[in-house]
Q: What sequence folds into this?
């Protein structure tokens, strides 16, 4: 402090208090579009949920633009991240294929960038969910984390040493389509016997309905809950019945858990992780799913008894992981833009990225995306 003309003058201006940087995360599934404004601690400040309007790419695009406009009306956001139920390239730009929506080589980022004037990225919804669990949820501090999202199918994400592993072409983590039963149940991907046909919400519903249609007396309570119509049995209904102690629903969940544990043992043989995070709608069953999964895992793990075992835990976020992770990935993309053709770990420089983001907000750094980069061979 210096004294000037009898008054105390600050030697330098006080540090500015900056508002937290906000991003919009959008999770696009086969049935709903969930969007939210998310801060840099993974906290959702406002959210919107709309039904996915149809399977037409243009209608989905319109729905995305609409929720972004509505959220930006009351928040200043710096980026938009989209978690899409599809296989997305390493440039986080093109949805190559979606089993549940009509995207086929869809240049989603380019189309949306014409209508949304802040930087945006597109990623796989399960990658986004895995990233949220690693950054803010059950996976914090793990070295090799495998995320398994049990929804209508099985989504997957892999975080190794603080980086999302995306594979050579951006399509790693699709373990739901590893074949568990050769010649088994038909899968939406076109193959038969995929793991997600046995350890997912769809599998739970299919088995429950089949049992109800067989007029088995053990399905009496489930049928009673839906007025006698097997087609009205849903995954959440079976879970609710199981949580109330209905023995048949508990068995159905235990079957799904058994398939889950067996697949987890297979993934352990391939990847040797320290942690499996189990999320998605079916994980609402908690221990009714996790305990049978743990038992099957213990029984089938190769080298069991002579190796440290990965832990199986429930996800911290149930329905919000996709949008929180997509928002956080968009924030990372501001300082480390994804690039096509690059081998698939991204984001890579988490700590430096944070510092750069702070400098950029304070006006000390020009965003990398505005600086021309040397072209790569
Ligand atoms: Zn499949």
A:
């Amino acid at each position: 402090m210096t004294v000037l003309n009898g008054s105390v003058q600050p030697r330098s201006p006080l540090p500015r208090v900056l508002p937290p940087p906000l991003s919009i995360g959008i999770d696009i599934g086969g049935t709903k579009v969930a969007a939210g404004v998310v801060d840099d601690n993974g906290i959702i400040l406002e959210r919107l949920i709309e039904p996915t309007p149809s399977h037409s790419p243009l209608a989905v695009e319109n729905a995305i633009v609409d929720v972004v406009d509505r959220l930006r009306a009351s928040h200043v956001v710096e980026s938009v991240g989209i978690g899409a139920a599809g296989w997305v390239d390493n440039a986080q730009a093109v949805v190559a294929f979606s089993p549940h929506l009509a995207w086929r080589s869809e240049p989603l980022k380019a189309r949306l960038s014409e209508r949304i004037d802040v930087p945006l990225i597109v990623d796989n919804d399960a990658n986004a969910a895995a990233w949220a669990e690693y950054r803010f949820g059950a996976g914090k501090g793990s070295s090799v984390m495998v995320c398994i999202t049990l929804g209508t199918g099985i989504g997957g994400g892999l975080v190794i040493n603080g980086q999302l592993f995306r594979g050579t072409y951006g399509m790693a983590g699709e373990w739901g389509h590893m074949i568990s039963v050769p010649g088994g149940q038909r899968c939406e991907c076109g193959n038969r016997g995929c793991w997600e046909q046995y350890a997912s919400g769809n599998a739970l519903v299919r088995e429950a309905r089949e049992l109800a249609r067989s007029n088995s007396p053990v399905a009496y309570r489930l049928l009673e809950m839906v007025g006698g119509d097997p087609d009205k049995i849903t995954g959440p209904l079976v879970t609710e019945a199981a949580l109330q102690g209905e023995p048949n629903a508990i068995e159905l969940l235990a079957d799904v858990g058994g398939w889950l544990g067996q697949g987890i043992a297979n993934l352990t043989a391939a990847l040797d992780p320290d942690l499996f995070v189990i999320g998605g709608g079916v994980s609402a069953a908690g221990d009714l799913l996790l305990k049978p999964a743990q038992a099957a895992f213990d029984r089938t793990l190769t080298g069991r008894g002579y190796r440290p075992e990965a832990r199986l835990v429930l996800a911290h976020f149930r329905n919000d992981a996709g949008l929180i992770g997509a928002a956080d990935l968009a924030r990372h993309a501001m300082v480390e833009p994804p690039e096509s053709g690059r081998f698939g770990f991204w984001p890579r420089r988490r700590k430096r990225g944070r510092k750069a983001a702070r400098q950029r907000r304070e006006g000390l750094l020009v965003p990398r995306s505005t600086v021309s980069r040397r072209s790569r061979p």
Observations:
- The chain has a mean pLDDT of 87.
- The longest helix spans residues 247-271.
- The two ends are 55 Å apart (CA to CA).
- The first strand starts at residue 2 and ends at 4.
